[in-house]
Amino acid sequence: MAHDEDVAGSERTLYPYVTGTSVIGIKYKDGILMAADTGGSYGSTLRYKSVERMKVIGKHSLLGASGEISDFQEILRYLDELILYDNMWDDGNSLGPKEIHNYLNRVMYNRRNKFNPLWNSLVLGGVKNGNKYLGVVTMLGAHYEDNHVATGFGNHLAVPILRSEWKEGMSFEEAVKLLEKCLLVLLYRDRSSINKFQIAKITEEGATIYPAYSLKTFWGFSAFQNPGQFAEGTW
Amino acid sequence: MFRNQYDTDVTTWSPAGRLFQVEYAMEAVKQGSAAVGLRSRTHVVLATVNKAASDLSSHQRKVFKIDDHVGVAIAGLTADGRVLSRYLRNECINHSFVYEAPLPVGRLVVRLADKAQVCTQRSWKRPYGVGLLVAGLDELGAHLYYNCPSGNYFEYQAFAIGSRSQAAKTYLERRFEAFDKYSAEELIKDALFAIKETLQGEKLTSSICTVAIVGIGEPFHIISEQAVQEMVDALETREEATAEQSGGDMQDESGNPDAAAPMEEI
């Protein structure tokens, strides 16, 4: 009986409410570029249209999140405190992207061990002392680094494109073009994505999150003409 | 009759603004056998004098590895030194667990100093009776710190603590300006010379000293006794050679047989 009350008396995230979809991150010549749309879905309803899902963390890092938006906001509170206390030492040391990535991994893995996960996939990119860093942490505490990463649907739709088209030392323009290609594919095939995107960059000089903009779409592809053709039972 | 009224516990001030118990703890550091540390831009070397408590016993360890990037040399109560070393190891390992990166040396030293300071402000505690030379490497370069029982800490280019450390300090003060550009080998040589100063004529052998080093591309490690003996032997043959060469010229410097000075030219 006491055991039942313990469970009833605690609150956990059992499923997400307001969610963001894919985030894509790639390395390029001067640093890291990240892209995401600004949609916030309430279940399958596209409820919010301008949610910023990429934020600057400290001096050297950029964080992008898909998944539960409120959990992302909680993570941002943790990181704000972490960076504040780091700055308060005022000793010339600062947390770099590698440190933040590992910290986030510890936080995510801890929460999942409490059966109360932070329902996100996080992309952490940054540059410190000339080293570019790009990695992912999932809600289960799985983590990895790569030259190009994507979360959620992006893992299925963007990563194959990145694998064939990403090159070492791409220029800013080339890299943005590649990101936009991926975003467009996601826009066509991921029903929770919206046509309002942000791109963020971080280099040795600092981070910039660009204002949201739309991509030009073309819906005249023959594959789009009769969507129910090979899917019996749809209309 | 004239017993000191102000030294019965650490938190009692004397009218002159002193804390006697803290000062006594600082004395404990001076009683311990000597430890020296010196730093270049890329490396830090620690060296200690090992004194056995009795002919029948071995000597106690004075150099402790804290992490790959930090090590300490202690003078004073070894037992307290070991407790603090364990604390430092814990701090380092926790930091690398959370951030997968080494703890900056300056931050480690502040935590140690804060721990020591608490003992000077609680009536039921006693200060640690140990001084620590903390050698470490981080993003900002090589560092050498001295932590004392009072909770104060200082960063040094070179320093010596423990019994007869004044002689080593004098030696280091004459030479520290060149240390920044030193190689690891040159640092070790000067560490050995500084240690020799504290021995007051006793013969320097590898069995009575421990030498440790940390630097870029070189995790903290204690140099093997055999390697130290080879370096001691090399110093002695040089010393003899220069003594023969210059004969009476050494006279004015013989107070501190500064055999190291001619080595600069080599």
TrEMBL record, chain A:
Any matching Pfam family: Proteasome
A single GO cellular-component term on record: cytoplasm
Subcellular compartments: Cytoplasm; Nucleus
Cross-referenced PROSITE patterns: PROTEASOME_BETA_1, PROTEASOME_BETA_2
The UniProt record lists the keyword Cell membrane: no
Function comment: Non-catalytic component of the proteasome.
Entries under PANTHER family matching the protein: PROTEASOME SUBUNIT ALPHA/BETA
Family: Belongs to the peptidase T1B family.
Name of this protein: Proteasome subunit beta
Organism the protein comes from: Spirodela intermedia
UniProtKB/TrEMBL annotation, chain B:
Region feature (Disordered): 237-266
InterPro entries: Ntn_hydrolases_N (IPR029055), Proteasome_alpha (IPR050115), Proteasome_alpha-type (IPR023332), Proteasome_alpha1 (IPR035144), Proteasome_asu_N (IPR000426), Proteasome_sua/b (IPR001353)
Major localization class: cytoplasm
Locations listed in the record: Cytoplasm; Nucleus
Gene Ontology CC annotations of this record: cytoplasm; nucleus; proteasome core complex, alpha-subunit complex
Subunit structure: The 26S proteasome consists of a 20S proteasome core and two 19S regulatory subunits. The 20S proteasome core is composed of 28 subunits that are arranged in four stacked rings, resulting in a barrel-shaped structure. The two end rings are each formed by seven alpha subunits, and the two central rings are each formed by seven beta subunits. The catalytic chamber with the active sites is on the inside of the barrel.
The protein's name in its UniProt record: Proteasome subunit alpha type
Native organism: Spirodela intermedia
